[in-house]
Amino acid sequence: MGDRCRRSVLPRRLFCLALAAMAAAGTGSGWAAEAKPAGSKQPPLSTQNIQTQPIQAFADQLTFHNDTEVYEAVGSVVILQGMMRLTADRVWISMLSGKLTAKGHAHLTDPTSELKAEQLDLDINTDAGLIVDGTLYMKDSNTLVTGRLLQRFSEDHYRAKEGSFTNCDAKNGEIPAWRFTFKDMDLNAGQSFYGKDLWFCINDVPLVPLPAMTYPVQTARKSGALVPEFGYDNRFGAHYRQSFFWAVSPSQDLLITPDYLSQRGYGGDLEYKYVLNRQSRGQWLLSYIQDNVTHTSRAQAIGTHAQQFNDDLSLHIKSSLLSDRTILNNLSNSGSLRAAPSQESDFILNQRYALGNIYLLGQFLQPVGAGSPNTFQRLPEIGFNLFNVAPFGGPALLGMENTFVNFYRDQGFQLNRVDLMPTLSTDVINVGHVVGITPQLKLREVYYTRGVTTEQTVHRETFWASVDATSRLSRSFSKEGGKSLVHTIEPDIIYEYVPPSNQSQIVQVDAVDDLPKKNLLTYSLRSRLLEMGPDGNSTNWLDLTLAQSYHVGSAQSQARFFPFSSSPLYSSTAQPLQPTMVAVEGKKFSDLWLRGVVGNNVGTPAIMNPMSLTVDAFFDPYRRSLSQWNTDVRYQDRDQWYVELGQRYTNEGNRVRRGDIWNPISFNEVYAPTEAVHYATGTVAFRAPLGWTLGAKTYYDMNTGQRPETDLVGVYQNPCKCWSLGLFYIQFPDRVQYNFLISLTGIGATEGFGTQLMKAILNPLLKDEKGLPWPTSPKRMSSSSGMSQQGQPGTGR
């Protein structure tokens, strides 16, 4: 029998049908057949298209039973086509029923999945099948499913009874670090997982029972529950958040997150994201809490929308609205948000033209914290800009910046302002191809519908004239391996003149209204040393800038107070109509500004140079001492450890005001004397034994000896990095907060305020690794991290 079957050649039509049944376990595509006698040498796999690749079939015996019309392959059966492979001890293909049965170590593999079973039954007509004591492994999502019975509806859809599910690496019979056991499971590969009567197991020890659960598999754009978040705050109590993700459509997502704080209240978040087309997208968040402390309902609505009507017309909307002015101060973990004087909402409609643009702007500042209801709102602002054009093809360049603003506020008078500013300049005039000279003249006419104490219109005429001379010297030094060092020196000298003007009746809303006199010479020198690689990439070794201004005319005699973040002068919030001025003794020479960057900027990956140092300082030439000294330094040993130190020091006395509306690098004024400020920050992170990565950051006020914030974080990754545990502890002056975050590879991670904190401290060492308690894929669609940045109510942030 065996000799006769090995010599026979099966009918092409019938054997093609049989092998098509085997292929149904993989791709379901039709196969061309080629029978090979048993014992013949196996040929190499073909590289032809899958639809036309030949099949190689091997078995100890190949038999056709005429009475039942069944093909039988016995003994070390191997079926090959392209990248598809089916092996088993015995295989039967029934011509009458279209049924394929493989028994004994059945093993079907393709480039994306792998199926093992003691018995495999497939219907070649419907691709459906039944697997007994089977194991399914999907490579893309690292998903492993086992079950006493697996029912196959299609290539991607399975039902399973009495089995387990995991995304953890566990091969050759190893116990996975975690998995879910279930009684009933429904799996759509690349879409969703649903299970009933589950247990969450660690090292096969059942820990958490779950009656039912569903979540997305492989892609985050599938509906389902996300991993919950637990925590504790000594002011807010126990904290629980549970997010439900709804993929409304391929271009719309909705995230619903109920939130509970045992000592503060309950509420939740509702976030909607959409990409309607290539020209329209946005995201909106409504956060709500029923506050048991204030006994009020509190909410915040934030969002953005971008609309591109055509190549030239666009609309951008940003919203940040609060139910009350103390909500961020009460509930936010963000220091900047707690100290902010206002929240900004605005829209801008912009139309570009060949020579300029016209825009419509609306801005609303909602006072919070130090803010006030007499804050001026821009409702609306209309602007027209003309880019530099050469009239009649001449050497002069003409520009224009014109705006009309209606300033509105809840308390106090309203105000309109018209600002007209034509500009004359030329292209760079080269002198001996060494020095480039650029003259500029800006005429400014500003009209106001009223003044500070008068209801009559007021106006101011002034101008800004400047001459800028700059040069650039460069030299290259060759190195081995096609590399080179490039050293550049860029000196610059600019003279500026603004005549004195009467500002006593000008309402001070923004920088347009504050145009002090200027008779100033500013000189700067920038020196850079770059290493250029053969691929064109560059690495910074040194970037040094020196700049200082000299008052050609009289020095400053009056100064305003410095706008600290906690003062009402900060940002564009409530300001006095005229700032309070104090007498100061001005100096001819300003402080000397020095900024140096050695290596990469602090915060960028340490690729070639482990050292990153940034120094930003002012030197007082009259005191011969530093008036300001700010440093940031990091030393990083690859992905093993790093230390980062930051220091901020400002001596008592006048504070330098850097830049103005005319020139961002000039030092025309100083602020009124203030007390000394001296504080430091320190960050350290390192890889510890047993899979832990630890880090800490602290802020220290050297004047008061207090620490306004201290953060401790840690992440544990199991050896196969299929799950991780994150812990964090935050100490504020008024409370402490601690929490844990978990991540299951292929399922998701809990997220919260600690997510961003942990990522900021540990990401320089763990960048791009898998199994972290924060999203590492840009396709991850979740809002928790974004909400934590915004300091949403109801979350303890």
Low-confidence stretches: 1-52, 565-574, 777-797
The chain-level mean pLDDT equals 80
Please report which band the strand proportion falls in: under 5%, 5-15%, 15-25%, 25-35%, 35-45% or over 45%: over 45%
Over all CA atoms, what is the radius of gyration?
Answer: 35 Å
What general outline do the C-alpha atoms trace?
Answer: elongated
Helical content class: under 10%
Largest sheet: 26 strands, antiparallel, barrel
Count the helices. How many?
Answer: 6
- Class of secondary structure makeup: mainly beta
What is the straight-line distance between the termini? 78 Å
Number of strands: 47
Give your account of this protein's structure:
The protein has 797 residues and is mainly β. The protein contains 6 helices and 47 strands. The strands form 4 sheets. The chain has a 26-stranded antiparallel β-barrel. Strands 1, 2, 3, 4, 5, 6, 7, 8, 9, 10, 11 and 12 form a 12-stranded antiparallel beta sheet that branches. A two-stranded antiparallel sheet has the order 34-35. The model is unreliable at 1-52, 565-574 and 777-797 (pLDDT under 50).
Q: Main attributes?
A:
elongated, 26-stranded antiparallel β-barrel, twelve-stranded antiparallel β-sheet, 797 residues, 47 strands
